[in-house]
Amino acid sequence: MLPKSVVDKLQENVSKPCFWKSLSPGQNWKSKSMRIIPEKIVGSTPGAFEHRVVFSVRWENSWQLWLERDKDDLFMQEEDWNEFVDDNHLGPNDTLFFRHDDTMDFEVQIFKNNGYEIMDVPLEVELETEPLHHKPQNSHKETVTVSASGSENGGTNGRVRHRRDVMNPMRYLLNPENPHFVKVVTKRNDVLYMSRPVIHRYRLKFGPLHSTIDFLLPGGQKEEGILRFYNGQPCFSGWSVVCRKYKLNVGDYVVCEIERSGSLVTGVRVHFVNED
DNA sequence: AGGTACCAACCGAGCGCCCA
DNA sequence: TGGGCGCTCGGTTGGTACCT
């Protein structure tokens, strides 16, 4: 459990409905009891989140979790909750603090057993060995190089047009499990094409034509993109705005980290590569 | 208010490269 | 060597700012 000073400080700042989750003996984070939305929260915000909730964390990542009723209790769906647990590498001594922000939105704070709050994406300690439920085949190694065209190691359709590789693109990611690809800026930057190997490998799904996605940029900045399908290939307009705003030049590299809700693509987190 | 110029975006066509 | 894929190119369209 957290030190009392930390608890007191949190509670001082809390005027909205909130609750804690930490493990009791014999439980693990994927126990069904950990997926329950406390009745007092449901009761205090009637109708606010009958179908889904969205958890947002300090490092501007978020997870959408669908809800299901079981008897009188409201549970987060197992698959969604397990993904949240895996993504954040929750350990037995961790504590979660949930604050109901707005309608279906919760702000989530993750504390380690010493009361230290995680402020950035938790890194997986042993990336190579821990099995992950949606980890793709040919999972990335830290030393992987990725061609600028977006093809990753082991891909059969990869083209090597710009053979200056970005070393270790995973180090740019907020969440190492997220799909990602490397994009080289060209003089035609009206749309950002999605990498097909990444789409297939992660079985990514897209919203309807003209639905919006977010370009999540450094410093918490955000630009809106529109989903298009050119030649059957999904891509996002609004990319030119990003290139202009951040003064990207032809030949510059960016690591595009795909944000998902389930398998549905909701945004592209853009990491500017500076390897020179 | 209407005309013009400029710019950004749309999207089909086609090029270049890799693999079987 | 042909087919498929990833990507760029370029013509067209639509929106906006500026000028008269």
UniProtKB/TrEMBL annotation:
**TF-B3 domain: residues covered:** 20-114
Show the segment(s) annotated as Disordered. Answer: 135-161
Membrane spanning residue stretches: none
- Provide the protein's localization: Nucleus
Q: Which GO terms describe its cellular component?
A: nucleus
Alphabetized PANTHER family for the sequence: B3 DOMAIN-CONTAINING, TF-B3 DOMAIN-CONTAINING PROTEIN
Protein's UniProt name = TF-B3 domain-containing protein
Q: What is the lineage of its organism?
A: Eukaryota, Viridiplantae, Streptophyta, Embryophyta, Tracheophyta
